[in-house]
Amino acid sequence: MSAKLFSLEALSSSFKVLSKLKSTSSLQYKFSKSHATHFKFQKCNSSLAYQLGELMSNTVLFFQFEGTLLKSSSLFPYFMLVAFEASGFLRALTLFLLYPFVWLVGGELGLNIMVFICFFGIRKEKMRIGNSVLPKFFLEDVGSEGFDVVMKCGKKVGVSDLPRVMVEGFLKDYVGVDVVIARELRVVGGYCVGLMEEMNTECLESSQILGDGKPSNSQSIGICCHNKFLHQQLLSQNCKNVFLVSEAEKRNWKSLPREKYPKPLIFHDGRLAFRPTPIATLVMFMWLPVGFCIYFIRFIVGMFLPHCLCNPILAFTGTITTVSVQPSSSNTSANGEDQVKQRGRLYVCNHRTLLDPLYVQVATDKSLTAVTYSLSKINEIIAPMKTIRLTRDREKDRNQMDKLLSQGDLVVCPEGTTCREPFLLRFSPLFAELTDDIVPVAIDVQADMFYGTTASGFKFLDPIFHFMNPNPVYTIRILEKLQPSDTCMFGGKSRFEVANLVQNEIGKALGFKCTSLTRKDKYMILAGNDGIMKESR
Q1: pLDDT digit string, tens, across residues 214-233
Q2: How many Å apart are CA 404 and CA 422, to the nearest integer?
Q3: Among the residues of 152-277, which ranges form H helices?
Q4: Would you call 308 helix, strand, or coil by DSSP?
Q5: 383 touches 424 (CB < 8 A)
Q6: Could you read off the pLDDT of 264-278 as tens digits, one per residue?
Q7: Main-chain phi, psi angles of 116, to 5 degrees
Q8: How far apart, in Å, are the Cα atoms of 60 and each of 49, 152, 183, 239, 319?
Q9: For site-directed labelling of 106, which of 50, 291, 409, 449 has its Cα 20 to 30 A away?
Q10: How far is CA 21 from CA 31, 49, 150, in A?
Q11: For residue 203, what are the contacts with CB-CB under 8 A and spacing of at least 6?
């Protein structure tokens, strides 16, 4: 089948015209297609909305992922993310130093070199970066114009030059493609050898690709970019019309706003908090020696100096800490006050990094005990505050926390794991049974270079990466203590009601959305396990 080439702008304009007519109530129209970019309108009695819906659902779209959705034409940032997450700084540095040569040779050879550098020697079961790290950066690079056109079609077939492991998770979860056509990585003995399998496009007919899922009387169109190593044979043999996206057109695209994401981006992994373009990557490597020195200074100051001295020194090194305390209401019963004075106060906070309890201790200027679910042995030893590890056995943990409250103040993060995005995970209701002296604490963290959290990496490195940021920002809001009427003992509330109330109060203070997702949901998505940390980490 020979394909006709058109501009994507013409296709986008046609969709806009049809969408405008969909809201017209005075006249109804039907259309006959002379070719893919021209529509003939005439008056009729049938429902236009029905016909438009039928057209979209019967359209099979073959699109090249990089050329149709992504604004940037450079693939370097995505391979840098793979290299950094696979082996850290050494592999990332290798890719960065060889990138000038990759850029010079370009084309298929340049792509194969980057694939070899990033994937050679990686265990197959560890290649989850396409589900855990890349979707965030893909979404930030998606052009709103290209995305609108792709999402209007019924069946979608995504074609990519990147390895399947990098794109399949994003295309299926966020774009809703039915089939992903990409090359597989060669694996020997469970390890990737850094080579891609050849893809035979001659046998990829539309009927074979979609199988029984291809709509009857469907029309197929293709979208790709004026670019290198396109799958033109695949598009031309399956599509009557192919629309081309020019680089000049893509430069005028707007970024896809968060509210238009097909589903909320709640979980993502990886250490890099910035898009690693070549210039940004150069800045990172230039910063690393300085960053290690600053981390060492911040660590020594935080470990051995009192709060009154370490706070101004840490601020001088670039850390930004904001603390605000909401005045407590005087509507507290005398009996309640007398009883809670015999026990410690429970500070309940959302979880952003491993350092949350430490910052709450600094903000309250009290000696606190932190209870945690996942803390590495190394961090437990060097922590400048008392830490107690929970067992995830409800009765044992309840007795342990109850005993600690009888000895002093306690801080707990009932989400059980960290969340980077403006969302709150479900709060475990265990804390609500222990005391009525509950103070919610709202925490937000901003990182400009590295994330101080990980789901699949080594957790003992979390504080190192956080303090290596040029300007890490911590915001602590100590909210009003719960009223006796809102607690279990004096108010007669259930533990679930109290936990949801605290979650809602913290979410309201931060502007975050509350969810019912749990630690297990996060770790199954990002790491493929239940989130129980091994002792070695």
Answers
A1: 555 567 788 877 654 455 56
A2: 31
A3: 164-170, 206-210, 232-238, 247-251
A4: helix
A5: no
A6: 999 999 999 999 999
A7: -65, -45
A8: 19, 10, 21, 9, 52
A9: 449
A10: 11, 9, 20
A11: none
Q: Rounded distance, CA 168 to CA 131, Å?
A: 8
Provide mean pLDDT across the span 520-529. 84
Which of 84-88, 175-179, 224-228, 444-448 has the least mean pLDDT? 224-228
Residue 522 and residue 425 in contact, taking contact as beta carbons nearer than 8 Å: yes
Nearest by Cα to 332 from 438, 478, 442: 438
Beta strands 38-43 and 191-196, pairing class: unpaired
Helix (H, G, I), strand (E, B), or coil: what is residue 384? coil
Strand-pairing partners, residue 42, are: 30
Task: Tell me whether strands 369-372 and 410-412 are parallel, antiparallel or unpaired.
Answer: parallel
Give residues with Cβ within 8 angstroms of 500, minimum separation 6: 427, 514
Residue with tokens 């890349």: 134
CA distance 478 to 89: 38
Alpha-carbon distance of 269 to 271, in angstroms, equals: 7
The owner of tokens 């919610």 is: 440
Which tokens sit at 320? Answer: 């930004």
Helix (H, G, I), strand (E, B) or coil at 127: coil
Question: What gap in Å lies between CA 141 and CA 404, rounded to an integer?
Answer: 48
Residue 170 is which amino acid? F
